[in-house]
Write a structure and sequence with these properties.
By secondary structure, the chain is α+β, with helices and mostly antiparallel strands. Helices cover 32% and strands 27% of the residues. The protein contains seven helices and 16 strands. Strands 8, 9, 12, 13, 14, 15 and 16 form a seven-stranded antiparallel β-sheet that branches. Strands 1-2-3-7-6 form a five-stranded antiparallel β-sheet. The chain has a two-stranded antiparallel ribbon with strand order 4-5. A hairpin with a 5-residue loop joins strand 6 and strand 7. The protein is globular and about 50 Å long. The two termini are 25 Å apart. The protein binds ligand Q0Z. The site of ligand Q0Z has 17 residues, from strand 1, strand 2, strand 3 and strand 7.
């Protein structure tokens, strides 16, 4: 870390630093959260897997929308990025009915103002990928909003542009993931504006922490699907009868190793690169 970096924010598993007026440094830790609690045991290389995947997608989607990536550091976990004016809306694209969308659908038949067909099951593929905006609530939990509310927050023309870009990104990434045996059930994008007012993709993109990745093999709608990466650690924590309040339990070595292996497997399937090659030289993901 250069002396000049000023810490300006913490996420559950990431840190944000200012390098200067125009540049930020996003650092992904090896911390893992489950049931919204950060566990005391890190997953070695998790931050590198997420940073590598994000960088991979930034490099391959620049034809769809420009992004904030300036440089991927040699540690493989730190991204130098352009400092943007962030839009006050999180942009979730869903191809499948899961999480808060499944809850909203069961209660109202709609998700963020989109009326869905009756009789859909949990985790079922939606008739078409759907943009479901959300705002960061006081609780720290995201609150789903409808498209007209999003349009009021960012402007109608900008919101139309955001929806188009988000759907194009999802279609591109979901098709890539499907070829590698992974279902991209949903994913959250964060976008900002540069000084020229150009829409820019920011934050992390298309990682297991911002998306639901499901193994296509064994996909069975009608209930929740196992998450590609965190299922080991979730199942272990559940097996303890933990009440899901902080502090979370320590995780034994074999569960750490199994979880790490799943993160690395997701990296290797999606990037078609050996993770060891990324450790040797992170720039390989930029193609
Ligand atoms: C991202 C976050 C993290 C805590 C602000 N390019 C950008 N320009 C301006 N702001 C951001 C970005 Cl990425 C920005 N976050 C989310 C990330 C720790 C909060 F690593 N907040």
């Amino acid at each position: 870390m250069p002396e000049a970096a000023v810490h300006i924010g913490s996420g559950k598993v990431r840190e944000l630093y200012a390098l200067d007026d125009e540049r930020l440094l996003l650092v992904a830790s090896d911390r893992v959260s489950t049931f919204d609690v950060i566990l005391p045991t890190p997953i070695p290389d998790k931050g590198r897997v997420l940073t590598g995947l994000s960088s991979f997608w930034f490099a391959r989607t620049a034809h769809i929308v420009p992004n904030h990536l300036l440089a991927l550091r040699e540690d493989g976990r730190s991204l130098e990025c352009r400092r943007l004016e962030m839009l006050p809306v999180e942009v979730v694209v869903r191809g499948y009915l899961s999480g808060s969308a499944w809850r909203d659908y069961r209660e109202t038949g709609s998700v963020c103002g989109h009326v869905l067909p009756a009789g859909l099951r949990e985790s079922e593929r939606l008739p078409a990928p759907t943009v479901t905006p959300a705002t960061k609530a006081e609780s720290g939990h995201d609150e789903n909003i409808d498209g007209s509310t999003a349009a009021r927050l960012v402007g109608a023309d900008r919101w139309a542009e955001v929806e188009d870009v988000a759907l194009e990104l999802y279609a591109f990434a979901a098709a890539h993931a499907e070829r590698r045996g992974i279902i991209l059930a949903d994913t959250k994008f964060e976008l900002g504006l540069d000084t020229a007012g150009t829409l820019v993709l920011a934050d992390e993109a298309l990682t297991p922490d911002s998306s639901r990745f499901w193994p296509a093999d064994g996909y069975a709608p009608g209930g929740p699907q196992p998450s590609y990466d965190k299922q080991y650690v979730r199942d272990y924590c559940e097996s303890l009868g933990w009440d899901k309040t902080a502090p979370g339990p320590e995780v034994p070595d074999e569960v750490v190793a199994g979880t790490r292996a799943r993160y690395v497997e997701a990296f290797e399937l999606l990037t078609e690169l050996a993770f060891a090659d990324y450790i040797a030289d992170p720039q390989v993901v930029l193609g």
